[in-house]
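Handoff note, outgoing to incoming analyst
You'll be picking up this chain. Sequence as last confirmed:
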Amino acid sequence: MAIPDFQTIMLPLLIRLKDKQTYKISELIEILADEFKLTDEEKEMMFESGNSKIFRNRVRWARLYLKKADLINDLTFRRCPFNFHNFFCYRFFWKLPCLFKLH
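Most recent structure output, in case you need it:
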């Protein structure tokens, strides 16, 4: 199977985040790779420039567009507590200085 584009990844990502659990982006990448039945070679495939992995990049683009559409949110840096349609938390926490560290 070919590596899916970011538009194809968006719906499975949104469905996965519907459970309102906290995920690291690396966990989501592995979950989605398993869902799309990607081989180890496809997971590790790099762009020609050698800067990043293709599938990882596409999952991040899908996440970005879902965030811009206000369908998910990202409350901290590098740790991604996604809450499906939880707009109050998003609007409240982004105004606060970083008082909490979620690990």
